[in-house]
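Box 4.2: Ligand-aware structure prediction
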Amino acid sequence: MSVTIVVGSQWGDEAKAKIVDYLAADAEYVVRFQGGANAGHTVIVKGKEFIFHLIPAGIMYPEKICIIGNGVVVDPVALMDEIEELKKRGIDVEGRLFISQKAHLVMPYHKMLDQASEKHKGKNSIGTTGRGIGPAYRDKAARVGIRIVDLLNRDVFREKLQTNIRDANEFLTKIYGNEPLKVDEIVDAYIEFDRKIDPYVTDISVLLHDAYKNGKNILFEGAQGALLDIDHGTYPYVTSSNTIAGAACIGTGIGPTYVDEVIGVMKAYTTRVGNGPFPTELEGEFAEKIREMGGEYGATTGRPRRCGWFDGVIAQYSSRINGLSSLAITKLDVLDSLQEIKVCTGYRYGDRILTNFPVDCDVLDSIEPVYETHPGWMKPTTNIRRYEDLPEKAKSYLARISELTDTPVAFVSVGSDREQTIRA
Ligand code: IMO
Ligand code: MG
């Protein structure tokens, strides 16, 4: 029996789902615990690509039980689309997809408010995915959110919805200059969702507790990444949930004493999508080259991702705040043709070198990354399946990452397919 948490350890898009899919072979339960349809989790099996936004990547295996925890904000439209899409492609979720009664719903006004607020912020926008994530978590914190359990009592649901739409309409019309939303249309649509969602809804804390007591292997699938965490990330350029390993307990209702392992997924370089500080960001032709080689375009929004060198400062920070027990280094193959590869080992700030990640975005804007240069291995790695067969220079690069983070490398990914995964 083991309980393992897989988390993104940079700014999201670390290829977490690829690692979750690989590890899911040995798990009985795969669980999402935070975020929402802002996530874009891509799994490629034998050349076929699947992109998940809300459903755990473990659904690819016919017998796995998949859970959406209370910490996730659930957009029923996105969820139903995802279920339908999977069905069309021969993957049936019936009887093995479960959703927490306590999960909050993402409503149409959350998405509208997210998009309108971003537009309103202009150059100060966060660059959100526009999926209503911030407004949904805001309502949750303000104690006016609507939970899945509320769908069960139609009168209460209608009343809560009416109040929320009235408030949302104030913002939409008076501040953002949008059209108001109509209550009845939304109530009718959501009552329809109630009927559809009903078979999946349960107390997932009980489900997971029983699974644990029965010695099952449980795998938690994080979304986003440590630097997008609302407390520990580059605030305000973050998402609205806690994305670090600790959130797995809160987002599902299990205790920290259950957890055996935390695997941090990191790309062999760094990317970020959306606005905010990115110390090792590259510009121009070279960034373009990495973007093309790595296929660095968002799985949810299609936006080109910002690309840069591996940042040892954020990696070490991430290892600390997640309590990482091991690393999964992904997309190593993207660096195969580079003559030289840089790694950031500290930030120069005035006459000091910072090795602890600074809190203040203004500090981050005025630091200069300190780099060391590693020779590239200049050999293809995509067909390698054993760690010892990796080029020596690639192994030294990985060893340096492990040293900087004080965390062993357990997995290396050399391509997007399930099979292109190496156990170190
Ligand atoms: P996965 O799980 C990368 C980013 C957005 C934006 C910020 C806030 O695929 O790694 P939000 O819509 O959450 O309010 O946007 O967070 N962001 C992600 N970046 N991968 C993700 O998910 C992300 N989810 C949100 O680009 O900068
Ligand atoms: Mg993504």
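In the box above, the bound molecule is magnesium ion. The chain has a mean pLDDT of 96.
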